[in-house]
């Protein structure tokens, strides 16, 4: 999170970021000079977590970033982007068709039947 705290130069060099919820809060606070605190008691309230991510993430899309992948631990991930729905993930100096912010939630897939735990920690 130091690039966000140290200098505004990140705006010309950064297009993607994949923070967790707390890192997203730090990014938001650094960019906007706020002291946004996460809501109390989010716990496993998925709707609250997703709303918090959107409130913090969408404003960052107006500051050079065009895509955020917010990691949500056991809840999965939330993709927030301004890329048009038909566009691929560009790299380098590709032209980037932008649209309105949109978000897609990706839950963690439920595991199938566990046959053996041998090697599970490897």
Automatic annotation (TrEMBL):
Protein name: Carbohydrate kinase PfkB domain-containing protein
Organism taxonomic ancestry: Eukaryota, Metazoa, Ecdysozoa, Arthropoda, Chelicerata
Native source species: Araneus ventricosus (Orbweaver spider)
InterPro entries for this protein: Ribokinase-like
């Amino acid at each position: 999170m130091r690039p966000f705290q140290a200098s505004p130069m990140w705006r010309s060099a950064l297009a993607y970021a994949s923070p967790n919820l707390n890192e997203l809060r730090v990014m938001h606070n650094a960019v906007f000079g706020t002291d946004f605190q996460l809501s109390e008691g989010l716990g496993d309230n998925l709707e609250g977590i997703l709303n918090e991510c959107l409130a913090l993430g969408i404003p960052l899309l107006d500051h050079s970033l065009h895509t955020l992948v917010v990691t949500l631990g056991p809840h999965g991930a939330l993709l927030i982007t301004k890329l048009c729905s038909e566009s691929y993930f560009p790299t380098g100096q590709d032209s980037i068709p932008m649209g309105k912010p949109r978000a897609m939630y990706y839950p963690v897939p439920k595991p199938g039947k566990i046959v053996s735990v041998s090697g599970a920690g490897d």
